[in-house]
UniProtKB/TrEMBL annotation, chains A, B:
Keyword Magnesium: no
Protein name, entry field: CASP-like protein
Localization of this protein: Cell membrane
Record's keyword annotation contains Transport: no
Domain named Casparian strip membrane protein: residues: 9-132
Species lineage: Eukaryota, Viridiplantae, Streptophyta, Embryophyta, Tracheophyta
GO CC field: plasma membrane
Annotated family: Belongs to the Casparian strip membrane proteins (CASP) family.
Assembly: Homodimer and heterodimers.
Entry keyword set: Cell membrane, Membrane, Transmembrane, Transmembrane helix
């Protein structure tokens, strides 16, 4: 059986994971370092926990066990994780973008010291991260589908 | 071939669509009527246009042509629309929720006349709408999968 490029365990998938890791961690660092609103910190924390558990698991699998057998159960778990994380990263990105726009439109002094630019970059990175998670999910869905044909 | 309950053209799907219609229109009305920030109105408009085009098409199909042949092409289009709209409704809901929380935490007078409660209800309805779109997408994916087996 031919392997779908980008599906779990391939080198394209590894590259996707590395970019996801880079984008999401940069986004998280720039968002969480100096933010003082509880609701966004809370969502950041939920992010970090879920992301670190599911994502590092998938990374470890794809790096250490490079020639993984493509079992439907493993692929389903990875696919489910990708879908959940893509929704989470989209909601985080939208929340950050909306809050930043609100800060910019209401209260100019709130955006001192390039704070708002930081949050905008953070939201942009979270959006990019969402797009990469979506790519991973599509590749894994395709791979899962091709397992049965 | 047995029909998947909840897939395109069934009565469960029709009920899901009716609830989606109710939730999203109530959410939109309460969000757009008295909101004066451009970024949210813009996302509202994008919502309305996309939702009205894709969703009323699907509704008309499922109501008027009740015994639709389950063609893979039709199901794929409905599935794609559901996925896109579920992402859109999630992003709108998160944006509204985040903006409302920001309004509540920064500036108390901004939330006069039960304005913030309206927005919270609106965000809640948008979240419910997202959950229903996700249901529709899952049912249609299942139906599409069962077409090939």
């Amino acid at each position: 059986m031919e392997r779908v490029p980008g599906s779990f365990g391939t080198s394209v998938s590894f590259a996707l994971r590395i970019f996801q890791l880079g984008f999401s961690s940069t986004s998280l660092i720039s968002m969480c370092l100096d933010y003082d609103f509880n609701e966004l910190s809370g969502s950041c924390n939920a992010y970090v926990i879920l992301w670190s558990i599911l994502h590092t698991l998938a990374d470890t699998y794809s790096v250490l066990l490079k020639q993984l057998p493509q079992k439907p159960r493993v692929l389903s778990i990875v696919l489910a994780g990708d879908v959940v994380l893509s929704f989470l990263s989209l909601s985080g990105a939208c929340g950050a973008a909306s809050a930043t726009e609100m800060l910019l439109s209401i209260d100019e002094p709130m955006c001192g010291d390039k704070r708002c630019i930081k949050y905008q970059v953070s939201a942009l990175l979270a959006f990019l991260c969402w797009a990469l998670f979506l790519d991973s999910a599509i590749f894994n869905l395709w791979s899962l589908y091709s397992l049965f044909h």
